[in-house]
C-alpha cells in the first residue's frame, strides 16, 4: 500500500500535512484535528504525541490554505509579553510604521494570559507571513523555535543565535558606562534594580553593572530582582524609605522604574540626588522634563521595532540579509539625577 510522504528529521517539508502528523503520531486525522484545535476530547498521552509530531515536522495547520494559495497574507505577526509602559508602545509604533511603509499590516499577539502560548503562536502563523517576537522570559524559547523552519522568525532583544535573525540594542557597554559614572561621583552603596532572569537585555545590563564595579576594584551587590513597572518602582522606594534596603545610588533597568522611585522618594522626604542618586535606561520623553532631569541610557526603541520589521520583510521576500545579529547603538545621557549639575550635557 502506497503511503503518504512523511517529513523526517528536523528539516521542514512543504508537503507536510495533517496526514503526515497523524502518521508520525500513530493516531487518526480526527485526533490530530482535535488536539490542534485545543479540544479536551483526547487523552493527555495522545495530545503530547500529536504536539511532538507537529513540532518534529514543523507543521503549520492548513486553516490558512486559502491564503497560502495566493502565497502571501501581506501581514507581519508581532508577539509581545504585554503593552504596559512606554517601551512596548514605542516598539510597536516603530514596528507598525515600518511595516506599513512596506505595504504590510501587523497582527499583534500578547503573551500575557495565554495558557498555551505555543499553540496560540501556531494559530497566529496561519494568518501572517512571518513572526517577530520579543526575547523575554514571558515568551519561552520553545515558542520561538516552534515556528522556526516553517515561517520566518525575527527575535527582538534576544540572544544571538545562528539559526534565527536577531535585532537588539547594545546593553553591556552602556550599562558599564552609566554605572562607572555613578561610581565616579563617589557612590559606594550602589544597587541594580531589575531581574536579570527576565530577559537578555536586563541580564546584559546587570553584567555591565558588575563590570563597572570590577573595573573600580569593588564588589557589586546582588540585583534587586523586581519587574520593570511603575508599581514595582514605588514598592522599591518604600523599601528604601523604611530602611529595608540601604543605598546611596540606584541603577534602574528602565526609566519607568527610575521615575517611579524618584517620585515616591520625593513624597517620602528624600532628595535626589543628595540622598540617593538614580539613573535609568531608555530615555523616555518624561526623563528630560522631571526635576531633577533623569540621567539614563538612550535606547532607540522605535528604531529597534522598525529594524525588526525590516529584517522580517527581507526574510519573507528573499531579499539579501546581513550576517549575524543586528545591534543598534545606545548612548549615555547625562542630566542631574546622578549628581551632575542641572546643566549636564549629553554625550
UniProtKB/TrEMBL annotation:
Q: Which residues form the HTH lacI-type domain?
A: 16-70
Keywords from the UniProt entry: DNA-binding, Transcription, Transcription regulation
SMART domains registered for this protein in UniProt: HTH_LACI
The UniProt entry, under Pfam families, shows: LacI, Peripla_BP_3
Q: Tell me if Transcription regulation is a UniProt keyword of this record.
A: yes
Enumerate the GO terms in the molecular function aspect: DNA-binding transcription factor activity; transcription cis-regulatory region binding
- Signal peptide position in this chain? none
| InterPro entries in alphabetical order | HTH_LacI (IPR000843), LacI/GalR-like_sensor (IPR046335), Lambda_DNA-bd_dom_sf (IPR010982), Peripla_BP_I (IPR028082)
- Specify the domain of life of the species encoding this protein: Bacteria
**PANTHER family membership:** HTH-TYPE TRANSCRIPTIONAL REGULATOR GALS, LACI-RELATED TRANSCRIPTIONAL REPRESSOR
Q: What name does the UniProt record give this protein?
A: LacI family transcriptional regulator
**What species is this protein from?**
Pedococcus bigeumensis
Amino acid at each position: 500500500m502506497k503511503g503518504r510522504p512523511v517529513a523526517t528529521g528536523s528539516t521542514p517539508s512543504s508537503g507536510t500535512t495533517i496526514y503526515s502528523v497523524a502518521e508520525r503520531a500513530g493516531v487518526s486525522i480526527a485526533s490530530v484535528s482535535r488536539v490542534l484545535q485545543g479540544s479536551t476530547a483526547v487523552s493527555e498521552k495522545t495530545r503530547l504525541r500529536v504536539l511532538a509530531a507537529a513540532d518534529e515536522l514543523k507543521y503549520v495547520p492548513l486553516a490558512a490554505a486559502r491564503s497560502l494559495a495566493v502565497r502571501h497574507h501581506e501581514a507581519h505577526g508581532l508577539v509581545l509579553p504585554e503593552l504596559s509602559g512606554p517601551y512596548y508602545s514605542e516598539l510597536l509604533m516603530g514596528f507598525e510604521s515600518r511595516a506599513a511603509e512596506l505595504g504590510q499590516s501587523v497582527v499583534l499577539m500578547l503573551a500575557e494570559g495565554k495558557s498555551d502560548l505555543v499553540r496560540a503562536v501556531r494559530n497566529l502563523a496561519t494568518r501572517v507571513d512571518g513572526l517577530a517576537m520579543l526575547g523575554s522570559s514571558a515568551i519561552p524559547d520553545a515558542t520561538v523555535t516552534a515556528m522556526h523552519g516553517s515561517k520566518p522568525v525575527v527575535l527582538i532583544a534576544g540572544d544571538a543565535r545562528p539559526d534565527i535573525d536577531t535585532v537588539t540594542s547594545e546593553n553591556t557597554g552602556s550599562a558599564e558606562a552609566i554605572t562607572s559614572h555613578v561610581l565616579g561621583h563617589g557612590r559606594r552603596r550602589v544597587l541594580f534594580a531589575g531581574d536579570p532572569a527576565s530577559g537578555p537585555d536586563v541580564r546584559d545590563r546587570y553584567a555591565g553593572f558588575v563590570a563597572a564595579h570590577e573595573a573600580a576594584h569593588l564588589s557589586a551587590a546582588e540585583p534587586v530582582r523586581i519587574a520593570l513597572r511603575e508599581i514595582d518602582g514605588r514598592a522599591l522606594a518604600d523599601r528604601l524609605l523604611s530602611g529595608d534596603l540601604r543605598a546611596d545610588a540606584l541603577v534602574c533597568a528602565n526609566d519607568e522604574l527610575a521615575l517611579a522611585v524618584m517620585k515616591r522618594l520625593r513624597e517620602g522626604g528624600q532628595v535626589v540626588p543628595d540622598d540617593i542618586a538614580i539613573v535609568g535606561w531608555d530615555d523616555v520623553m518624561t526623563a528630560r522634563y522631571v526635576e531633577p532631569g533623569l540621567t539614563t541610557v538612550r535606547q532607540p526603541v522605535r528604531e529597534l521595532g522598525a529594524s525588526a520589521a525590516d529584517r522580517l520583510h527581507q526574510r519573507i521576500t528573499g531579499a539579501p540579509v546581513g550576517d549575524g545579529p543586528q545591534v543598534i547603538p545606545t548612548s549615555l545621557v547625562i542630566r542631574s539625577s546622578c549628581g551632575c549639575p542641572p546643566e549636564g550635557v549629553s554625550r
